[in-house]
Automatic annotation (TrEMBL):
Protein name, as recorded: Sensor histidine kinase MtrB
Transmembrane segments: 165-184
Source species of the chain: Kribbella koreensis
Domain HAMP, residue spans: 186-238
SUPFAM superfamilies to which the protein is assigned, alphabetical: ATPase domain of HSP90 chaperone/DNA topoisomerase II/histidine kinase, HAMP domain-like, Homodimeric domain of signal transducing histidine kinase
Record key words, sorted: ATP-binding, Kinase, Membrane, Nucleotide-binding, Phosphoprotein, Transferase, Transmembrane, Transmembrane helix, Two-component regulatory system
Amino acid sequence: MSTIVLILVGWVMMSQVTDGILESRRDSAKQEAVAQLASLTSSINAADPGALQNKLSLLVAGSNRPGLYEVVLIPSDSADSNAIRSTGLVKSESIPPELRASVTQDDTKLFDTYMRIDYRGNRSEPGLAIGSQLRVQGNSAQRYEVYFLFPLTAQKETLDVVQRALVTAGLLLVVLLGAVAWLVTRQVVTPVRMARRIAERLAAGRLEERMQVRGTDDLARLAVSFNKMASNLQQQIRRLEELSRLQRRFVSDVSHELRTPLTTVRMAADLLHETRDDFDPITRRSVELLQGELNRFEGLLADLLEISRFDAGAAALDLEDVDLRDIVSRVLENHETLLERKGCEVQLDMPEPCRAQVDSRRIERILRNLIGNAIEHSEGRPIRISTAYDDDAAAVAVRDHGVGFRAEEADMVFSRFWRADPARARTTGGTGLGLSIALEDARLHGGRLDAWGSPGDGAYFRLTVPRRPDVTLTGSPLPARPADAVRVVTEMSLVDVGAPYQKLTGGDEA
């Protein structure tokens, strides 16, 4: 931008200087031409008419000022080139035809124009031509065109010096501005870039990074404030990490410690449950309730222990090549009683074998949670289970037409201990950890678990896992929302819980 400004300023200055020098030279040339024209007119009129033609060359030469201007005399009524008189080896052809036409038409004015003065010997230089018409007294038919050619070599040299000075000054200014810009960058932008790099390192987990504080200006105060902010963030993050570690340890320790007394209580409860027929009805009912609550308590402890393994990074896969349809069948067999109680119809869309190398125990636990939730919240409506595969991925989708969930709840369905309706009467499970564990199991496989829901239109969960452990998911063979969905899916109602992995294409475009 500075270079453009300097070019514009230089162009304006050069134009003004050029106009001033040329205008000054033009005024002085006109004065000189008027004086010499009067002198030449007097000399021609004073000459003997009979010997005028012989004296014209001497008269023209006497009007010349070598080095200042040249004179060209052309008879108006003669086409003979030999009748043309000139000084200084000037070619009469260098006079512009437009100037000659103007001089021929009006004999009362001086006409001028800028042109190139051509000399014999192929020499040329810029010049100013001033022309007028000269009439010999006593002979109205005898007319001459007189042209004074003023070389502008000196003016051109002056303009060249001015132009070189402007270019040199402009280049020096550009260099100076570059040095100033470099200094500003060093003094202002460099600390800002350093702050950016420190912020990136802090974001990467290097909480000990700090900015260097130099001086007492605004940038130094910014560095002090930045370092104070980084220290506070480091303290808060460490506190949260310590709190999280204590919480995980507490959950893990409590889960392990509760298993010992629970085992004793379980043995006693099993003994009572086996002999419940010997008790009175009230005691027998109490034993049955105790057995059911112990089962739920064991399930909760098992879920807590599994969450502790995920938090500690101790979870591992036991891969085997299985057909996902077989896992779906086993899960449905385990839920036969609940299906009969709810009166749900299960529709299966599993036309072809859907094989993948997965941990069958973890995949079964995922599907057990998805199908169990679908049955519990279906309110007696049909449930549809679909499987599909492509070269890289295998997928299972569970669709129910129950109560569903609101769009603002869509991003919480996989949160720990969260339930869509805490007041709902439950018949199975209900620890609030099932979907959280399912999500961790899916991520452990390098897969993803997507959720879609709409109030009154049910819910749709899609599990996608790679068919081989060396495959990175780039798509899913099943769509991200059910084809029979009534409401158009919104950004919030489609939960992308696979955010740590590459965004899917293909089916997700729906």
